[in-house]
Amino acid sequence: MVSTHPTGVQNSGSKYLPQTSNQNTNLSPNQQILPITARINSRDSLEIGGCDVTTLVQQFGSPLYILDEDTLRTASKQYQESFKRYYKGESQVLYASKAWSCLAVCAIVASVGLGIDVVSGGELYTAQTAGVNPDKIYFHGNNKSREELNLAIQSGCTIVVDNWYELHTLVEIAGNKPIRIMLRLTPGIECHTHEYIRTGHLDSKFGFDPNDLDDLFAFVSKQSVLDCVGLHAHIGSQIFERQPHRDLAAVMVQWLSKASGYGLPVRELNVGGGLGIQYIESDDPPSIEEWVKPICEVIEEACAAANLPLPKLLCEPGRSLIGTACVTAYTIGSSKVIPEIRTYITVDGGMADNPRPITYQSVYRAVVGNRMSEPLTETVTIAGKHCESGDILIKNAQLPKTKPGDILIVMATGAYNYSMSSNYNRLPRPAAVVVVNGEANLILQREAYQDLIKQDCLPQRLIQK
Ligand SMILES: Cc1ncc(COP(=O)(O)O)c(C=O)c1O
Fold first, then answer.
1. From ligand 1's centre to the CA of 94, what distance in Å?
2. Per-residue model confidence as pLDDT tens digits over 214-268
């Protein structure tokens, strides 16, 4: 029986296809589950960036992360253009590279003019190696090591100081040249998202307590080695409401006003990231423009009311830049039918390349990339191949009838998939390609078994004779 989807559409892929030019083009990339270049070609296969996903799998292997350059560039430009349109002051969009840190991704966003937010020595190294200007790198983290702080100082990037311990350490290790810092504060703003990805409520491990503001500003204003250029806050991730960021903007201007009372040259406000994306049909995030506009309006109004000059306004989205720009292609293998209960179909990856379902109970959608127009006749659970019952990528997915060898495409896997991936069960990490105008380039090589034991050491006494 053909399944009847609430939208009335009964074929596999087309209901997820992005809007075409004769339909509504006002959607941002974060509001569409598939990359903006997704099409169904004459072979009934999904095409992204002009490349047939089945051909990509033949060429680069499976599983495969497929990143659409146009989607990433379009989302980046939408952020920049929205700030230009709605903010009279200076602005800078940073890419939160925790979403997906690798050389090619950093290079793409930097080429559009974005800066990069990093949270570790490793992410800093990646951004620098990709050629990102240190003036546009901001280093976060609630427990940066001395080594990381020294690396950050040497690089010349801005350090987003998270706590008193870090502040004192910086004063101790600073040389003669003032260090550019921002202060991260916990705004105490609640938003409705998963507990693990909420960071702005007062009970958070990140940032200074705003009740410490006077002490903090008094301390920092006396440190000639610290050039405190700005204030930062991030309230959480995968947020669909707009009010929390309006509230945040208003609170941050109050902090700014207080800082000026201490003679601090604070001239930048960073409102963090957090804009959500569409993972499933019912997800209805605001567009990038709809997210940026109210933040700009609140900051302009609040600064005018407080008689403050407009600060440079920064934000640091991750998910809404890259989440929907990528899909993961898997190959379908075994299946198990449990009568009256469930049918499992298994793919050649799972929780190691996408730990979000098992970590956050995140929900994804999938299509069969080599039979995009076939009717949705099956309800199946898509399992990964890891030795863990919870290794389920999607429960109750609506798919056409599949067979081993079919290509399953899980959508919106650009953010927090590769970057949170592991080698659980000693599975090599998949390769990743970037696609644009019919061309595919490898951006991450598939790991080999040799890579898995590269760091292993076998003490002499354990070598089998
Ligand atoms: C400090 C900070 N900035 C930016 C981000 C990016 O958030 P998102 O990917 O939701 O835009 C995060 C993610 O949690 C974060 O912790």
1. 10
2. 999 999 999 999 999 999 999 999 999 999 999 999 999 999 999 999 999 899 9
Atom of ligand 1 nearest to the CA of 232: 1
| 310 assigned to some structural domain | yes
> Residue 457 and residue 465: Cα distance in Å, rounded?
17
Sign for the pseudo-dihedral over CA of 286, 82, 119, 232: negative
Q: Which residue's CA is the closest to the ligand 1 atom numbered 16?
A: 234
Token pair of 283 as six digits: 């997800």
Looking at this protein, which amino acid is placed at residue 353?
A: D
Residues 392 and 424 in one domain: yes
Select from 114, 162, 234, 248 the residue to mutate for testing ligand 1; criterion: most ligand atoms less than 8 Å from CB: 234
Helical segments of 180-307, H only? 213-221, 243-261, 288-306
Ligand 1 pocket check for 273: Cβ under 6 Å:
yes
Instruction: List all residues 6 or more positions away from 429 whose beta carbon is below 8 Å from its beta carbon.
Output: 352, 353, 418, 421, 423, 444, 446, 447
Close Cβ partners of 267 (under 8 Å, ≥ 6 residues apart): 229, 230, 309, 311, 312
Which tokens is 298 given?
């609140």
- pTM (two decimals): 0.95
Domain of 417, in residue numbers? 14-66+323-451
Cα-to-centroid distance, 236 and ligand 1 (Å): 7
Residue 280 identity (one-letter amino acid) = I
Supply 230's token pair: 């700005």
Q: Give yes or no: 387 in active site.
A: yes
Last residue of a domain, which of 322, 337, 368? Answer: 322
Which amino acid is present at 29? Answer: P
Tokens of 135: 């003036």
Give how many domains the chain has, as a whole number.
Answer: 2
Residue 180 β-bridge partners = 227
